[in-house]
Design a protein that fits this description.
This protein has 366 residues and is mainly alpha-helical. The protein contains 17 helices and two strands. A two-stranded antiparallel ribbon has the order 1-2. Helix 1 crosses helix 14 and helix 1 packs across helix 17. The longest helix is centred in the C-terminal third of the chain and has 40 residues. The radius of gyration is 21 Å and the shape is globular.
């Protein structure tokens, strides 16, 4: 055993919300809204912007800056969930039920107000909890205590070694395979370390696990927190965003993969920047952050109606202002829906928690 190894201490403040990280959670969701505003199948920004214009360059810059938003969420989970090995089935059940309730409610709303015709097949589809992020997050939630136990047995040096090896195997190498695939113009089935059909752009439990482990490493190791100054982190973030923007002009798919090493480093840099903020406990920030998951679920239904086609061909300053005001406005609207939903369902879930008391607790004696 390395001399540097110390018995890990459980965090007694795991239940407390750190407002700096809660602010990051809010901004990450705003980033997701901006990504979907730009998306060709969402708000349609990239559909309507003039190719080669300054507006397109700004959309690409924003895309490159916020493409790490999902990775940031998983880093936050790893950072906090590594301190406890207890999991309750009611929490992931709440997420899945909320997703089903929202999707079904949205479908029925559209039917009632004439936005679409009723079809039993469509109703059944709304009832199915099909959302890659939610499903993979639930899987990660249940396997994370076992990841924690494995991490606890390692010294800081060996944790760092594990992170490096996993980053090479599950980020750097598969991204290089994707670049090679794009450059060669053919599918190299079986060459990637993620799966037979490549990295799947990071929409995998492999990428979620890697990010969780990085978040846990940041929590337990001192080196990532102290090595870089704030100015250095900001410079790195600017360089990464510019590089990803330039790369996207050549190939969007490989530039904006969630498993890209540049995107993962971007997520880490942003997380480290916010982890250094000292802002105490801010009740307003903490309250708004509670609705982040609801905002994630609800905001896509509004994006087709925000009129992106009216703004992406106008002035660049106006476009930038509209994008951020739209993102913040949608956050507030969706948060208000969350508040109503929470007031109705909170008592139900509290009672349900007493009935369904299935837990995983690896710290409890056998």
């Amino acid at each position: 055993m390395d001399k540097s190894y110390k018995e890990p201490q459980k965090n007694t403040t795991v239940g407390l919300r750190q407002s700096n990280i809660e602010l990051l959670r809010i901004l990450a969701i705003i980033g997701v809204i901006i990504l979907h505003y730009n998306h060709r199948d969402g708000g349609g920004g990239f559909n309507y912007v003039v190719q080669g214009s300054a507006n397109e360059l700004m959309l690409r810059f924003l895309e490159s800056l916020f493409i790490c938003a999902v990775d940031v969420f998983i880093l936050i989970s790893g950072y906090f969930m590594c301190t406890t090995n207890k999991r309750n089935i009611i929490k992931p059940l709440q997420l899945i039920l909320q997703m089903t309730i929202f999707s079904t409610g949205i479908y029925l709303f559209k039917v009632i107000f004439g936005f679409r015709d009723f079809a039993l097949k469509s109703l059944m589809g709304a009832l199915v909890p099909a959302n890659y992020f939610v499903i993979l997050y639930v899987v990660l939630y249940f396997i994370s205590p076992y990841i924690n136990l494995a991490m606890e047995k390692l010294s800081e040096h060996k944790k760092r070694q594990a992170v490096i090896i996993m980053a090479v195997l599950f980020s750097i190498y598969p991204s290089l395979v994707d670049i090679f695939t794009a450059a060669s113009g053919r599918e190299w089935m079986g060459l990637s370390t993620i799966g037979a059909w490549g990295s799947q752009w990071g929409y995998t439990i492999v990428n979620f696990t890697l990010l969780y482990i990085i978040g846990a490493y940041i929590r337990t190791a001192e080196r990532p927190k102290k090595r870089y100054k704030t100015q250095s982190l900001l410079l790195i973030l600017c360089i990464l965003t510019i590089v990803l923007t330039a790369w996207s002009l050549l190939d969007e798919d490989t530039a904006w993969e969630y498993c890209s090493p540049l995107v993962i480093i971007e997520a880490v840099v942003i997380f480290l920047l916010f982890s250094r903020l000292r802002m105490g406990t801010n009740k307003v920030i903490n309250e708004f952050a509670k609705g982040a998951f609801s905002v994630y679920l609800l905001h896509p239904i509004f994006l087709p109606y925000v009129g992106a086609e009216k703004f992406v061909q106008g002035g660049i300053l106006r476009l930038g202002g509209v994008i951020f005001l739209t993102a913040m406005g949608l956050y507030i609207i969706c948060w208000a829906v969350y508040e109503i939903y929470n007031k109705v369902t909170f008592p139900i879930f509290k009672k349900l928690e007493k009935v369904i008391s299935i837990t995983i607790d690896l710290d409890a004696p056998d």
